[in-house]
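Chapter review: from sequence to fold.
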Amino acid sequence: MHGDWRALAGGAAFAHRPGLSAAERTELSYDRLRLVNRSVTDAAHLTRDARRLAALHEWTGFVDGGLCTLASIHYNLFLGSLVDHDGHHRDLSAYTAMRRVGTFLCTELEHGNDVASLQTVAVFDRGTGGFILNTPGPGAQKFMPNTSLIGGPKSAVVAARLLVDGKDQGIFLFLTPLSDQAGHLPGVRVRQLPQRTGTPVDHCLTAFDHVRLPREAMLEADHGRLGEDGTLASSLGNRRKRFLRSVGRVTMGKLCMSAGTLGMARSALAIAVRYAQHRHISGPKAGERIPLAAHRSHHGRLLGSLADAYAMTFLHRSVLDRWVTHDEADREEVERSVAVAKGWITWQAREITTEARERCGAQGLFPANGMSELPGNIEGGITAEGDNLVIWVKAAAEMVFGHEVPPAAPGVPPVGERALTDPEFLRDLLLSVERTWQARARRALRGGAPGNPVGRWNETSGAALEMVSVHARREAADAFLAAAERAADPATRRLLRRLCCLFLLRQLRPYTGDLLAEQRLTPEHALGVHQAVEAVTAELAPHLAELADAFDLPEEFLSGVPVANADYLDHYQGPTAP
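The token string follows.
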């Protein structure tokens, strides 16, 4: 599942290339995308293999954030949409062989998270049986797709509102060629946007001026087929459901974005831990030199981030498995779980990469050391495929009454007999916190003033969002504990359970007041949380390098990162500056 991508990421073609302009770096990302494609036996099959597709993002994100973005667009959003919509009837060879790069045009300048209100139209032309694709105004320009001429000829799937005799039939996708070797095609207007944070990508504004498309341009499936007479047949009853099914690849996109940022977090930690081992500073005795990792103020922060990264990894594996095995009956619940996980994982990845960069001091500011661009690239993952806060607000609204927090396990000992070293006890406490915040959200929603839905939700949203946050961390803890139980080696199982204890203790710290008030904790427990964190940190400190090495980053990659190596000072030997 991961080995081929890992080997690819460690190859010389993916090594850091200093001194390139933004345009050259973008071109390099497209060149690397083609290297990825040459390593793929069947690109169409890759779009249907969710685990392997997510793994691709885990291993490319930290070597080239632009490549990670382009791969997600081409394989998941573009080619995946074609495959999902009666793709077996199409010749996909131009896209699977990457003679044409695929892109995805949905978001508009005035319609981002409310993209269901987009204004681009595809008018059914009875005279030809085809469509006329048009951008009706400046606000309907497609925002941020990679539609420049960099990277070669491109085609897009364009989300547009289908109009038949002036009647709005809902939003569907339309396969639209954008450019060839000579440039952009007639009627396709493209303007490159300013450079954003992170690794450069050729983001553009794109508009259509009455572009004619053939009948087969419309992507069809059971949720929407257009007859020759202009009659729409659909298995779904309303336009919103048809739209959500048309852009269903966005859910897999959330898993891809989570995977990419997850790989970035693990990479930053692996580098920072190695640096902490071989960077030496003055010790307490005259002339003594000790590693940074000897200090609790240093290794404690790294261990906390490692605990989070393990939890993030196990949560991602868990929701990915649920997505692969879900059926139609539980699709909405699984989609919500994917959205909640995406929000938590990408936010945590930003925190981890920032922490790792800081632990490397000024060395971490240099791109050659593999960390300085990661937070900016993660910002893209936080916003892409649904802005984190917005998708969490949607989940929160559904979960206030549409989600039941599991009950506490039966037959557990009294609170006073349980220990802060017991991860199952800590997990049950986090479950209680989730239940508390759900109850607060329910009370707020029920008690809000009638006739003012926005006001009622404003009073509810704080508690509801806290419930979602705790839910994400509780799900991560469940996945963490399950992974520990699967470990065949007893020493490994114990180490994972101790690391999970550290994760849970750090999550519970802000809620000890509530837990004490609800008699879920004793006063001795509440007073002992800090000491419990210190004790488990001390126990884990000797395993710092072991825990980071388990991320299994390619040695070829790490050998090219100066601060990841004990001889990093040698990298500063060279010609003097002019």
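Two observations follow directly from the output. The chain has a mean pLDDT of 95. Residues 34 and 417 are 60 Å apart (CA to CA).
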